[in-house]
Structures are given as C-alpha cells and as structure tokens.
Please model this.
Amino acid sequence: MKNYQYTSISGTEQNNAYEVTHVSQLKEYVDRTVIMHGSIYKIRKMKGFSFLILRTARFCIQCVCDDKELLNELQEETCVRMEAEVVREERAKLGVELHVKHLTILSAPAALMPVVINGKLMETSLETKLDFRPLTLRNEKERAIFKLQEGILRGFRSFLQENGFTEIHSPKIVYAGAEGGVNIFKLDYFGREAYLAQSPQFYKQMMVGVFERVYEVGPIFRAEKHDTARHLNEYTGVDFEMGYIESFHDVMEMEAGMLNATLTMLEQEYSFELELLGVRLPRIETIPALKFSEAKALVAERTGRVFRESHDFEPEEERLLSEIVERDTGSEFVFVTHYPAQKRPFYVMEDPENPGETLSFDLIFRGLEITTGGQRIHDYEMQLQKLQTRGMDPEAFESFLMMHRHGMPPHGGLGLGLERFTARLLGFENVRQACLFPRDINRLTP
Model:
C-alpha cells in the first residue's frame, strides 16, 4: 500500500511576515513586515526610488521601492507577491504605505496596454471602454461601479431574506413569453420552438403557492431592436412576488423598505466606493404616489406640453415628472399607479372600480422607470376570461393556469432592472456603464 504524505497547513505568519489579504487590515501591522499580492497599477519614478501603486482586490496601496535592478524589470500590470514593511504615512490615501523588502514577479504582461487605465479619469469613449472591457474594468473607478452593484444586491437579498422571502432560480429556456409580443428570442429546442425568458413571471407566481414569498436575481432577455441609452437586450432582473396581500400597495411598501435598507447598507459598508465615484445617495422617508392619469395631467399642466403617447409615458415625460415631484416633495422617487389595461400584461389585475385601469405601478427614479409591478390575477375563471378576451390560446398557458385552477392566494410582485437602478444611483446617462459586459443590438463581444 502506498504511503501518503500529509502536509499540515495552519496560521498566517510566515518567516516573521504576516500574510495580509485585505488592505484595510494594514493599519494593524504598522512597523511589521507583511506579505501582499496584486498587480502593479502604476509606476511613478522619483529621484533614487519609485512609487509603485499596487492594485489589490478592492483597494490600491502606495508602495516605495528603491531596488533599481528590480524596477528595471517591472512594468504596469505585472502580477507580484511582495514582502514589505508597513509604514505610517498620513499623506497616503489609506494612512499607511508599504516599503518593499522583497518582490517576486508572478507573471509579466506580453504586450503593452492598448488603453490607459490608471489615470484619475479614463479619458476615452464608452465604446472604447466596452471594446477593451476585460482591461478597462481594472481601472479603480470602473471596478468600483460593480463593487457598489454587489452592495446593492447584498442589500436587496438581506432585506428580502429578513422579510421571509425564499430565493428561487427559474428556467431561462421557456415554452412561452411571459410578456407576449414579438420581442422574444426564439430557440430551436430539439426540434421544438422555445424562447429565452423575458422574465421569471410565471414561475415566481407559481412559487407563491409553495413558499408564499419568493425572489430571484437572474438574466432577462428582450429581443427589442432599441439602440438607446436606457435599453439592453440582456440585463439582470431583481424580481420578487408575495402572497396574501391586501392590495398592490403592500408590494410598493415592501419595495420602499427594500430600497431604504439597501441605501443604508451602501452608506455603512461601501463608503470607499461612494466617495471614489462621488455618489450622492438619495434619502427615502416616504415615496409619493400618483395615479397614471394624474401624473399625465400634472406634467401637461406644469410644462404646457401634451405628449402623443396616451397609454404610457414617453422618456421625456418621465424626466419631467421626476423633476416636478422632487421640487414638490423632495423625493427623487415616485410611484405611478393604475396604468391603463391596454399597456399591462394579461396576468395583471384590473381595478374593480374602473376596469380600464390596472392595480399596477411603475417606480420612477431620477427620471427613469426602474421597476414595474402590481397585483396579479389569482382567480382561475378571471384569468381564463382575460386570456380569451385578448385572443390568446389558454392551452398555450396550461401549466401557468394549473396553479390558478388549484387555488392561489391574492398576490403581487415586481421586477427591477439592476443596471438601470445602478446607473441612476451613480448618475450615469447610459445604462451600459452599469453593465459588466453589455449585450445590445450592436454588441456581442467581449
């Protein structure tokens, strides 16, 4: 029988040096030797020594190196492992700097960078940023966008979990489009026609009958031939659905709570990225709500403009409404409710007091719709009749109707576009800036 040799691994101290994985811990090791790894973000040559800016997973740290032979070998984006003394330096961003004792080159780039990524600002076009996305995301500010996006999702998930929601994962290859229409991607599914999911709508409603409250974070596919600053053909949807509601206002209140909790988490745990990007967080005390017809009338009255679209908002109308509401109430958010039935999907419940309106809402934030939600039809006969009234074949929705036939509680939910929310929060005009690798009608790589 072969004799196996086992190696014991424990502790983080190596040869009187401390392995430090998070730069935020460095202040605890002043006047001690630490081991760090990262990439050389920038080299600033001085007389007799050089400043090396080491890019680690979250922070950049200033290092001082006077080894001329070593400096001749180094270039930007070289991956290194170093032993260095932690020295207090109040002028440095983090209050300390590293004095290099020993440095090992782990890998060196084979070519010069095609775009400058280590300036205070990336002075290049959005298209260039996206063309070289694997590289430009290494820029300190570009990657901070997605660290904040991580924080947004952490906030959402934490709040929903604390409020009794179960996370689910629904299929993205589906038999029918939840929203209907022609703007869905078709697939050949082993000889059968299938589609990429426009939303997890059917499945999250089904799961209300299982868990009562569910949520999902996942990709949404829309085959819309838009080429605008607000549209993507693949984006990340944050959806939740909740049962035993008294009205769709319960859903709106849950979203307000979720957003408030998330902004609090960002303020407490992501202050570095917020400061780096100059983000101004909104305040949520209460979110004002207006009926769709009232919002339309308000914009027309205040601006003297009447828009052609009578059953929905045009982008400029959303922007003007946000400005008016913020001036009147101080809120950068506004709920618009009771959208016309013609503009809402077949599963949205109509207002019993006015069947031409629906028990639905959009949430507009800083001039852009970021959420659509409302109360769903839970009664089997009502849902069947709605399908038939719209000329839709009930047999095509048999598994969706199955849940209605066998009993469902009153329920409602919403879908939020993560990239749109991130873009509005960070003050970006183009939603692509808040997407890691955007997919639109022109872009399939990288």
